[in-house]
Write a structure and sequence with these properties.
Strand content: 25-35%
Strand order of the largest sheet: 4-3-7-1-2-6-5
CATH architecture of the largest domain: 3-Layer(aba) Sandwich
CATH superfamily of the largest domain: Nucleotide-binding domain of ferredoxin-NADP reductase (FNR) module
Shape: globular
CATH topology of the largest domain: Rossmann fold
Radius of gyration: 17 Å
Largest sheet: 7 strands, antiparallel
Number of strands: 16
Oligomer: single chain
CATH class of the largest domain: Alpha Beta
Length: about 260
């Protein structure tokens, strides 16, 4: 077995900003130049545990934390000057076709965060990114302002219509895919959303990749806790092509908790 060498690093929080009532963005005092869009970190809090976190930016290293559990609660409480320990980056990143001129990034909830990183890198490489982001209500929207700094157009949807177009991201995504020359589509967020986007792209024969989240313990393919249909999200993913994701029996339908039970 190939030995995995990815030591724990510790960085200081240089900026902590509330995105909304439950999501906080932590900007570190370091860069992570080897990180690629779509990869993740295993973030460690002494006494609380370790949690996989998407990378929102590599320069400076930035993550966003939704307060949903013990580890995320501890991270959410951090202020400027606090310390964050992490391993990584891990996982398979997004792939942008060599001749792509325009891409569409789609984010739901806090799945918007890694979409910014992808859009930023695309723009730095002369590719024009468009974005569609969705949330339940206006107060749940995150990283809209950040996306506007790297995307020519950002389309917002909310389930209740309190911000942007009422409904989910699919209606906005569909007219963009059908009406503009989109060379590739990328999505991160709720699986039902990504399943619908993947099906739409496959039907229109447009390359599409989605970021699949599963419960993780090690992040390096040892424990097997993030298995999905014979693949490991931490090493075979978390980025999968639309075709591969749609072939997974669980994708968009069910997931497994820490005990391995379907939920």
């Amino acid at each position: 077995m190939k030995k995995v060498t990815n030591p724990i690093r510790t960085a200081r929080v240089q900026k902590a900003a509330d995105e909304n009532y439950r999501v906080k963005t932590l900007e570190m005092d370091c860069d992570l130049p080897q990180a690629l869009p779509g990869q993740f970190l295993m973030v460690w809090v002494p006494g609380a545990g370790e949690k996989p976190m998407s990378i929102g930016n590599s320069n400076p290293l930035t993550i966003s934390v939704a307060k949903v559990g013990k580890v995320s609660g501890e991270l959410h409480a951090l202020k400027a000057g606090g310390m964050v320990s992490f391993r990584g980056p891990f996982g398979k990143p997004f792939n942008i076709p060599e001749r792509a001129k325009r891409i569409l990034v789609i984010g739901g909830g806090y799945g918007v965060v890694p979409m910014y990183f992808l859009a930023k890198v695309a723009r730095e490489n002369g590719i024009a990114p468009l974005a569609v982001i969705g949330a339940r209500t206006a107060k749940d929207i995150v990283w809209e302002k950040q996306l506007f700094t790297v995307c020519k157009e950002v389309f917002v949807t909310t389930d209740d219509g309190t911000r942007g177009k009422k409904g989910n991201v699919l209606a906005e995504a569909q007219w963009l895919i059908e009406g503009k020359k989109i060379d590739a589509v990328y999505a991160c967020g709720p699986e039902r959303m990504m399943e619908a986007v993947a099906q739409l792209c496959v039907a229109h024969k447009i390359p599409c990749e989605v970021s699949v989240e599963r419960y993780m313990k090690c992040g390096v393919g040892v424990c097997g806790s993030c298995a999905i249909d014979g693949k490991l999200c931490c090493v075979d993913g978390p980025v999968f092509s639309a075709e591969e994701a749609l072939s997974f029996a669980e994708f968009g339908k069910s997931r497994r908790d820490a005990s391995g039970r379907k939920c």
